[in-house]
Write a structure and sequence with these properties.
9 helices, mainly alpha, 3% strand, 2 strands
């Protein structure tokens, strides 16, 4: 995951540097990769460029959109599982491909960078790997039941925060067992998340580790 985050930061840094040098309207000391991690960075950039928007080139306007897009990718690295993240990145790749004779898509300005290549390579490596040698027939049969080619082996890397959560729950379980042994009551552990997607991801992971996990998503 660190490689993913570093690749996105490198893309952000390149976009911000180019935007500052081409427009001459952004202060490099104020608008940099560190400040891009702030919540209202997009609003700061647009507010600064808005009076001169009609004078900006199409590439400069595209880079402003790129900043918003890359910041979204940086957020999803920590909130999406490996499969969902790769699906989102593939969607961006498809949207960047233009029809013959059409203008480049909004993500075209950063898709060709080395950092973008690293981003996609690492995202794929977290999801699947290609087998260099023929797999056992039993493994190939299992892959076929999953709708996968015979030479694709799922990796499905677990997000680090879920592993940390599992360790915390194990510690709580130890404390609860100790409390029950002393005659005290032990209640359930409540986990709160920011979205229904995250709730389902947490539930899916914990269900593979524990016999009973209740999913309660407010409608």
């Amino acid at each position: 995951m660190i490689d993913l985050q570093q690749a996105v930061l490198d893309c952000l840094s390149a976009m911000i540097s180019e935007l500052c040098s081409t427009t001459k309207l952004l202060d490099a000391e104020t608008f940099n990769v560190e400040s891009s991690l702030f919540r209202y960075f997009d609003s700061m950039v647009k507010r600064r460029l808005n009076p001169y928007w009609h004078r900006l080139s199409g590439r400069a306007r595209g880079m402003v959109s790129d900043l918003t897009l890359l910041r979204r990718v940086a957020e999803l690295i920590t909130t999406y599982d490996s499969v969902s993240l790769l699906e989102y990145l593939d969607t961006l790749l498809l949207s960047a491909k233009s029809a013959p004779g059409a203008l480049p898509g909004p993500a075209a300005s950063w898709m060709g960078t080395d950092s973008a290549n690293i981003l996609y390579s690492v995202a794929r490596a977290r999801t699947f790997v290609r087998a260099n040698e023929p797999l056992p027939e039993s493994t190939q049969a299992t892959l076929r039941t999953l709708g996968l080619p015979d030479n694709i082996v799922p990796v499905l890397e677990v997000p680090p925060k879920l592993e940390v959560l599992a360790n915390i729950l194990n510690e709580i379980g130890v404390l609860n067992h100790a409390a029950v042994a002393k005659g005290a009551d032990s209640g359930p552990a409540l986990i709160m998340a920011s979205s229904a997607r995250e709730c389902r991801m947490i539930w899916s992971y914990l269900s593979s580790l524990h016999d009973y996990v209740e999913l309660d998503i407010p409608q």
